[in-house]
Specification:
By secondary structure, the chain is an alpha/beta fold. Helices cover 38% and strands 22% of the residues. Strands 5-4-3-2-1-6-8-7 form an 8-stranded mixed beta sheet, sandwiched between helices. A 6-stranded mixed beta sheet has the order 11-10-9-12-14-13, sandwiched between helices. The longest helix is centred in the C-terminal third of the chain and has 25 residues, at 295-319.
Length: 400
């Protein structure tokens, strides 16, 4: 069985081709980025007929997503595993599934209409996710299209975790509640941690951290998400590259209505977070600036790590202790300095890092970095949302 995974973003399309031959594994993958710009570029890798991996990069004319997909389909014909044939199923990342979608779902016309109705909750993402579904359905009309939702994993949150203390009508009439995001990544991390620890997911208490330009934490009890830091939108929670994270809502109202600072939506999502604090959102550069004596950079890193540490403490209490703390995402997987600073001071929870193991962590897919003889485990896991989407798509396709 061959599963094609499509992750359609606002200015890029990522894809992965997976084959289930005993174990599900990637045989091709890549992305077309900077859609709508003059410098659009397609890069991908695939196995040739001898099983060797080859890499290709080329400039592409992709003024919009339809042109981008046309270029991708040309590339698919050059991939030996897909040449002249359709995949057995196509899994699509869909950012927002609201309360209606709790797992992977066959994308029938009725389901597509339900997803379209959720566009106001994710205006930058759901419309292009739907476009990917539509284009792939036209290109492969006999192939099952499966929607895998970022919000689905968090649909196990209990009401006391997902409800806000606002008037009832806000929730019952307008759907204002905590939805949570990065669910596909958190689900993958919980599964991978269980495999590494050699224990059933149903026996574990985990805190998973997806730390990238967007960042979120999740409390995972026996395989189910019971709390997560992102809320009604991906703005709430941890400090991120350009998103503020937790903020008194009155501060935003005051900024707009009293101080006349203009629309706050763009300010809070694109001009805040690390960028708002020190002018940039690349933690590698910010750490270098801090080392050179930049006080704004130091404040940004301190605040970033402090907020993560607060959530770890909160979720430790929510779970009643943990078996493992998981770092993942571009920052979580590649920054020993951030991991060390996040865990500094958490010795009271028996969370202590081994510096040597921490510095070597990114060389393997899963690494333990806790101090020798310590529990809970502290893991660095290379997250793989495309593989998780492929797994969920394959399971649904086989059931069908």
């Amino acid at each position: 069985m061959k599963i094609l995974v499509i992750n359609c973003g606002s200015s890029s399309v990522k894809f992965g081709l997976f084959e289930q031959n005993g174990k599900l594994g990637e045989i091709a993958g890549g992305q077309l980025e900077k859609i709508g710009e003059a410098s659009s570029r397609l890069s991908y890798h695939c196995q040739n007929v001898r099983g060797e991996t080859q890499t290709f990069t080329q400039a592409i004319a992709a003024a919009d997503h339809r042109q981008a997909f046309a270029a991708l389909f040309d590339a698919f014909r050059a991939i030996p595993a897909l040449a002249g044939q359709a995949p057995d199923a196509i899994g699509h990342r869909v950012v927002h599934g609201g309360e209606g979608f709790k797992g992977p779902t066959l994308a029938t016309e009725a389901v597509i209409q339900q997803i379209r109705a959720l566009n106001p909750l994710a205006p930058l993402h759901n419309p292009v996710n739907l476009l990917g579904l539509e284009i792939c359905a036209q290109a492969f009309p006999q192939t099952p299209q499966v929607a895998v939702f970022d919000t689905a994993f968090h649909q196990t949150l209990p009401p006391h975790a997902f409800r806000y203390a606002v008037p009832d009508a806000w929730y019952f009439e307008h759907g204002i509640r905590r939805y949570g995001f990065h669910g596909t990544s958190h689900q993958y991390l919980a599964r991978a941690a269980a495999e590494h620890l050699g224990r059933p997911a149903g026996t574990l208490k985990l805190i998973t951290l997806h730390l990238g330009n967007g960042a979120s934490a999740a409390a995972v009890l026996h395989g189910d998400s019971i709390d997560t830091s992102m809320g009604f939108t991906p703005l709430e929670g941890l400090v991120m590259g350009s998103r503020s994270g937790d903020l008194d809502p009155m501060a935003a109202l005051q900024a707009a209505e009293v101080f006349g600072l203009g629309p706050t939506r763009d300010a809070l999502t694109r001009q805040s977070g690390l960028k708002g604090l020190c002018g940039g959102n690349d933690l590698r550069e910010i750490l270098a600036q801090e080392a050179a004596g930049d006080e704004k950079a130091k404040l940004a890193v301190d605040l970033y790590c402090y907020r993560i540490r607060k959530y770890i403490g909160a979720y430790f209490a929510v779970l009643g202790g943990i078996d493992g703390l998981v770092f993942a995402g571009g920052v979580g997987e590649n920054s020993p300095a951030i991991r060390a600073r996040v865990c500094a001071g958490l010795e009271c929870l028996n969370l202590s890092i081994d510096p040597a193991a921490n510095n070597l962590a990114k060389k393997a897919e899963t690494t333990e970095i806790q101090a020798i003889g310590k529990t809970p485990k502290i893991l660095v896991i290379r997250t793989d949302e495309e593989l998780e989407i492929a797994r969920q798509t394959a399971e649904l396709a086989q059931a069908l």
